[in-house]
UniProtKB/TrEMBL annotation:
It comes from the Eukaryota. InterPro entries: FAD-bd, FAD-dep_Monooxygenase_BioMet, FAD/NAD-bd_sf. GO terms for molecular function: FAD binding; monooxygenase activity. It comes from Pyrrhoderma noxium. Belongs to the paxM FAD-dependent monooxygenase family. The lineage of its organism: Eukaryota, Fungi, Dikarya, Basidiomycota, Agaricomycotina. Residues 33-360 form the FAD-binding domain. This is FAD NAD-binding domain-containing. Gene3D superfamilies: FAD/NAD(P)-binding domain. The keyword ATP-binding does not apply. Keywords: FAD, Flavoprotein, Monooxygenase, Oxidoreductase.
């Protein structure tokens, strides 16, 4: 590959920028330059958390603005507590539903009367009180806008229409489609399951997943004329219609002013590519292949457009960061959570919190690789647990008609019968319920504190120089942001 030629004007800009970095780093502690690729939830949360930790963050987004999609999202207690800790309570309260008291599991193909209720799953009040938060719903756009403003007000720089097409990890730089080169100390890939950073860390191609999800929202005024559908906005309950190889999750947002629908189904089209949200016309989505319950069918026909995203089969990413300590994958770039799952947004925000907390106390460049590796150590088991849990739940509510589906319905009916007290439920059912609650107790700040308590002495030794060689890249001539060699660059192209 041919070397990159950098114009003199850009070199002058680089020198000026590096001088500013040197001044910033001359005080107590270490201020790093982070490049964050992507303005999804993980990118926005990561950018704010790192900026708040005292670093300088530059976010690059290929689109002309932060992506906005007419869809809903789940807000489990662990996510809402982070948002309130960040001072976002008043903004959240405008958009959140009331706390969800229970999940109503319905037959997706019944005649639409009371007999369609197969079972219910309670959010036990005593446990939610102990968690100091409820399970909520809110618009995806709402959270994205809140986080964008939060990050902007904190000083994060955003560059839109800035698609990253090439990585230069040895130089800690990226090249945009315009030809512009952007430099930093660390490159964060928060650009989704088809991430350019992920492909650098693991060049093996991903495969399109077996399932897709279409999402949309409708306003209360749009469904007010349909009394059966209108009733779904009057209580904060979560309705799940269970079909054969599909399920539909319906829930109210904004105190009942909107209704969100996530329709999860087995994808059979070869033309639908995984990992990218697409806006499609409702008439182009073949509803006739699904024997939908009448209310659900009417609801699915209401919007003019749908947001569709297909899952990606990534396979495990062995290393979330590179050996140079220059790049890191977070969010779906590192560990995709199904877009129809309960915890995808929460996991994305948790990633940002952990990364910011780790780098809030960095004192020396020799610690960078340690912190990047520790990010994976802290987060990996949590993310894998959530991945498996969300997949299991989606599989359960989307079983094809047959013996497994009948056994599931029998279990849910039992949960409805004994749900108020929990007595009479099998150990297996109780274990599943308890595992879900355990996920809500997760606190990313506590996880970092635990890591510091365990590895604090190692950090001190690294500062003293006793283990510095463990964390410095082997190619010591390849400099960080303030030691760039412009000539003889190694060009590594990873193009979308």
């Amino acid at each position: 590959m041919s070397p990159v030629t950098v114009p003199q004007e850009q070199l002058n800009n680089i020198e000026s920028r590096l001088a500013q970095v040197s001044i910033a780093n001359s005080g107590k502690g270490l201020k790093l330059e982070f490049i964050v690729i992507g303005t999804g939830i993980s990118g926005l949360a990561c950018a704010y958390s790192l900026q708040k930790a005292g670093h300088s963050v530059h976010v690059l987004e290929a689109e002309s603005s932060i992506p906005k999609y007419q869809s809903g999202m789940r807000v489990p207690p662990n996510l809402s507590k982070i948002m309130r800790r960040w001072g976002l309570g008043p903004e959240l309260d405008k958009l959140l539903s009331e706390g969800c008291p229970r999940i109503l599991c319905r037959s997706g193909t019944s005649l639409g009367n009371n007999t369609d209720l197969v079972g219910e799953i309670l959010f036990y009040k005593e446990i939610m009180v102990a968690l100091e938060a409820d399970f909520y719903f809110m618009p995806y756009d709402g959270l994205a806008s809140i986080l964008y403003k939060l990050a902007s007000d904190a000083g994060v720089r955003f560059s839109f229409d800035s698609e990253v097409v090439t990585l230069h990890p040895h130089e800690s730089s990226v090249i945009l489609s315009s030809g512009e080169i952007v430099y930093g100390d660390i490159i964060i890939g928060a650009d989704g399951s088809r991430s350019i950073v992920r492909r650098y860390l693991n060049p093996e191609n991903e495969e399109d997943g077996s399932h897709s999800c279409v999402m949309f929202t409708v306003s209360m005024s749009e469904i007010a004329k349909d009394s059966e559908l209108y009733s779904l906005t009057k209580t904060p309950e979560w309705n799940i219609w269970m079909g054969s190889n599909w399920s539909a999750m319906v829930y109210p947002m904004c105190k009942g002013a909107e209704l969100a629908v996530d329709f999860y189904y087995k994808e059979t089209s070869q033309s639908v590519r995984g990992g990218r949200r697409q806006i499609i016309n409702t008439e182009d989505f073949d509803l006739d292949k699904y024997n939908l319950e009448p209310r659900l069918r009417r609801l699915m026909k209401m919007p003019k457009r749908l947001v569709r995203i297909r899952e990606v089969d990534q396979g495990p990413l062995e290393n979330w960061s590179d050996d140079l300590g220059r790049t890191l994958a977070i969010g779906d770039a590192a560990h995709q959570i199904s877009p129809a799952g309960n915890h995808g947004v929460a996991i994305a925000v948790e990633d940002g919190v952990v990364l910011g907390e780790l780098f809030s106390r960095i004192k020396d460049r020799s610690q960078i690789r340690l912190f990047l590796n520790s990010f994976q150590e802290i987060r990996q088991s949590r993310c894998e647990t959530v991945q498996l849990s969300d997949k299991h739940k989606l599989d359960q509510v989307s079983l094809p008609n047959g013996p497994e589906q009948e056994a599931r319905d029998s279990t849910y009916r039992m949960m409805k019968e004994f749900g108020q007290e929990g007595e009479g439920l099998s150990d297996e059912i109780l274990q599943t319920i308890w595992e879900e609650y355990q996920m809500y107790y997760y606190d990313p700040c506590e996880e970092v504190d635990n890591w510091r308590a365990e590895w604090g002495s190692l950090l001190q030794r690294s500062l003293a120089g006793s283990v510095e060689e463990t964390f410095i890249p082997e190619d010591t001539s390849a400099p960080y942001c303030n030691q760039i060699r412009v000539e003889h660059r190694k060009s590594i192209d990873w193009v979308h």
